[in-house]
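Structure ticket #2291
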Amino acid sequence: MRLTAHSVNMQLTAQQVYDMLVVQNNIIGEKAIISFILKGHDIKITSRDSVGNLLQEWLRDWLITQGVVFGASPGSQDFPDFQLDLTDNTKGMLEVKSFDYDKSPNFDVAAFLAYRRSLLLHPYRLDSDYLIFGYSMVGHHIEIKDVWLKKVWEITGPSTDYALKCQVKQGEIFNIRPTKWYTRSARDRGPKQPNFTSALQFVQAFDSNQRQWTGTARDAVTSTWLTKVIAGYKVTTGKDLV
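Resolution: structure written out below.
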């Protein structure tokens, strides 16, 4: 993909970043190679473990090259990945996710307990955008198959056991996991799973999980969590949570 440097710094919304990537620069269908070079020895990387981090680093460099200004989180695991609005930290939050397009999406949306704490402090986080790359990988060759811009409730939904699908191990909830929000074709393997239709429905499902899970069902945070998040969202954004 051809990159064009811009001399004027631009502050863009997540939608404008998406349009620049997908519409103007046609990233869907582009191919990449992952390699590691040390002392002249070049090896081709075939593991998928590093793809997500590499795509995020590529996006960071691409935004800089395009003249897009942004703030970044202090650490690689901190939220958000990109702060696009430099004047208001309650807006312009962009998270980057990726997954193997030949399989169902299985990335971690967020750690369950950390997200619970975060929404109490920063309920406006519900307005974050998720830029999601679906890729295929053959050997060390990667192809970008699709790119989406979604809200958290548009990529999550219920599971068989919980109102909100999560990674569960030996009865313990660890991470919020996505449901399948897209259909590739009539021959797509498996039906599109149900997703939530609003931020309110998402936090209500989250609250249902913490009331069902023995690890949080009886603690003091759970008893008032939903009420505080809804009220806090109104205070910090000026909008009702719907």
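Closing remark: The helical segments are 14-24, 51-66, 112-121, 199-212, 220-237.
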